[in-house]
Write a structure and sequence with these properties.
about 280 residues; alpha/beta; Arc Repressor Mutant, subunit A; D-Maltodextrin-Binding Protein, domain 2; five-stranded mixed sheet; globular
Length: about 280
């Protein structure tokens, strides 16, 4: 069997994700007949059937499911290699840190201050994203290190937990439940959250706060986030049976950067000092 080409994997992943040759061809910017021929040639090359085709649908075989999983990872790795090479080739590459705004357990200023004292430190650029953007950014070579909450998809990543803290519920100050000192999840059953407003996009903090103040949603931020955002129209209440959140520092498993290692050292040192101080 000859080696697979990136082009073949890209074609197959498009078809496997769309489960429709026409949509896959449109996504790839090509005509459908050559795409169909390319998939047949791939099956011939591998000696296995990847897709079950009928006049009404396309479905993956077990072999196709394996190739989709590994093909996605391979395409991500190729793209990441290119991005990391480009980044390393810039005159001053810097360290790219990604996180969701305020989801650092209040540790980031101290981490950066300690990191800057390390001989391996290089300038840090901070890239803010949505709740689920950090792990893909690391895998795809768009970031070097990240702070974000567990659990997450840790494929090809290493990570260290930094701080575990309780979550609270954010309610409109006019909400009847705001009069209570503590709540449980059953009290909030059926209440919409940020993800129920528009499943196609993530709301930013300003939008979340506005909707909470209006009584349209409730929200469960970490305690450190609630302390940063005191607002007259919002109250925060503890929820007895709400799971805590653990903020982690994560980086690509194959990373060999002294700057990444220095940042991880700083992050874990600051976190351990915070625990010792709290104790």
């Amino acid at each position: 069997m000859s080696d697979l080409e990136v082009r073949q994997l890209r074609y197959f992943v498009a078809v496997a994700e769309e489960l429709h040759f026409g949509r896959a061809a449109e996504r790839l910017g090509m005509a459908q007949p050559p795409l169909s021929r390319a998939i047949r040639e791939l099956e011939r090359q591998l000696g296995v059937q990847l897709l079950v085709r009928t006049t009404r649908q396309v479905a993956l075989t077990p072999a196709g499911e394996v190739l989709l999983r590994d093909g996605r990872a391979a395409l991500d790795a190729v793209a990441a290699a290119g991005r990391r090479a480009q980044h390393a080739g810039t005159p001053e590459p810097g360290l790219r840190l990604t996180l969701k705004a305020d989801y650092d357990a209040g540790l980031l200023p101290q981490i950066l201050a300690l990191y800057e004292q390390d001989p391996a430190a290089i300038p840090v650029s901070v890239h803010l994203g949505g709740r689920n953007d950090q792990a893909p950014a690391l895998r795809q070579g768009r970031a070097d290190v990240a702070l974000f909450p567990a659990p997450f998809d840790d494929r090809d990543l290493d990570f260290e937990p930094l701080r575990t803290e309780p979550c609270v519920v954010a309610l409109a100050a006019t909400d009847p439940l705001a009069a209570r000192e503590t709540l449980c999840l059953a009290d909030l059953a059926g209440r919409p959250g940020p993800g129920d407003v528009d499943a196609r996009r993530q709301l930013d903090l300003a939008q979340i706060f506005s909707l909470v103040e209006l009584g349209k949603i409730v929200w469960f931020p970490p305690l450190s986030v609630s302390r940063r955002h005191a607002r007259p129209g919002i109250v925060y209440r503890p929820v007895r049976d709400l799971d805590p959140v653990t903020i982690t520092v994560a980086w690509p498993r194959e990373a060999r950067s002294p700057a990444v290692a220095a940042f991880v050292r700083a992050a874990t040192t600051v976190a351990s000092l915070e625990v010792a101080h709290a104790g």
